[in-house]
Amino acid sequence: MQPWIPSSRSRKIPYAYDRTLYRQRRRIENLFAKLKDWRRIATRYDRCVHTFFSAICIAAAVIFWL
């Protein structure tokens, strides 16, 4: 099993990791971090599931185009 996160630079014997898997994981984590900048999504302001999902879609579209 390969670890997800690369080892630190100060480690004497670095362990192997999958670069493509790490890049994909990092992109997803960054997207969630950007979505949490929107207060409405971070606090789950909407009660209805479909309204909350539509707010996520709008925020993701705006983040993608900016």
Outline: elongated
- State the distance separating the first and last CA atoms: 37 Å
Q: From N to C, what is the helix and strand string?
A: HHH
What's the pLDDT, averaged over the residues? Answer: 80
Number of helices: 3
Biggest sheet statistics: none
Give Rg in angstroms.
17 Å
**How many structural domains?**
1
What structural class results from the helix and strand content? mainly alpha
Extended strand count:
0
Strand content: under 5%
User: Which percent range fits the helix content?
Assistant: 55-70%
Uncertain segments are none
Multimeric status of the protein: single chain
Give the SSE map:
Elements: H1 19-35, H2 39-42, H3 49-65
Verbal overview:
The termini are far apart. The protein has one domain. The radius of gyration is 17 Å and the shape is elongated. It has helices spanning 19-35, 39-42, 49-65. 0% of the residues are buried. It has 3 helices and no strands. With 66 residues, the protein is mainly α. The model has no long low-confidence stretch (mean pLDDT 80).
